[in-house]
Amino acid sequence: MKGIILAGGTGSRLWPLTKALSKQLMPIYDKPMIYYPLSTLMTTGVREILIITTPEDLPLFKKLLSDGSQLGCIFEYAVQSEPKGLAEAFIIGKKFIGTSKVALILGDNIFYGNGLEKLLKDNYQPDGGIIYGYHVNNPKRYGVVEFDTTGKAISIVEKPDEPRSNYAIPGIYFYDNEVVAIAEKIKPSSRGELEITDVNIAYLKRERLKVSVLDKGIAWLDTGTFSSLMQASQFVQVIEERQGLKIGCIEEVAFKQGFINAKQLTKLATPLLKSGYGEYLMNLIR
Hints:
Radius of gyration: 18 Å
Strand content: 15-25%
CATH superfamily: Spore Coat Polysaccharide Biosynthesis Protein SpsA, Chain A
C-alpha cells in the first residue's frame, strides 16, 4: 500500500495565520502539523508517501521532510494548483499509485488513542474502500454516514442541512486500486470540487464500502478553525506532559516500525537535543 497526504488549500479560515504559511506547517504544540498525519500513515506500515501541496509551499515541505530516506521511507511531492477537492488527489497521484492500493489522509487531521494502530493495520489491504464513522456534536460540517438498524452504512451525504446521524467521516480513507478510475469518472460538485463523498458513494453502491465506527477511546481532531487549532495543541500538550510520551513523533514511529535502527535514530536526535525533542529520541534507545 502507498499513502497520500493532501496538504494543499489556502487555509483561508485561518487567515492571517496562514496567509504566508501553509496550515500544515504550523505548530501543533511541539511539532509541525503534518507530522501527525504522516506518523499515522507510517504507523499503518506505509513507507511510500506522496505529499500534495501548493506550488508556493512545496519547497518548504521538501526542506522539512526531504526525500524520506532519513526515516526509512520514500517521500514524493506533487502540486495541487487550486483546491479542486479531495478526490483530485487520486488523479494527481495516478502515476505514483500505479497498481497499488492507497491510503489518503488529510494534512490537518490528528488521530490518537488506544487500539488505533491495530485498527489501521487491519485495513492495510482493503478489498474495496474502508472509511470510518466518528460521533460528533455538530455533523453539519462534515460528510455524514447513515446506518440501518443492523449497523450497515446505507447513505453518505456531504455537509447535510439535516444530518441523518451524528457520525462524521474523518479524513483518513483506504481504497483498492479501483479508486483512481472512480475518481476520474466523478463530476465536480456545485462547489466545483471532486468530492471524496462521491468516491465513497460509488463504492457504497457497489456494496464494496466498509464503514468502521471509531470508539470513545480514539480521538480525532481536525484543525480547520482557530478554536480547533488551539484545542489540538492543548490536547497534545496535556497527553505528552502527563504521560511523557509523544504524539505524532515520526522519528519514534520509524524506529518502532523497524524502518530505521538505533544508529540512524541517534543521527536524527543529535541536532534536536537543545529543544528536548532530541533527548526524548535518545531515551528511546536507552
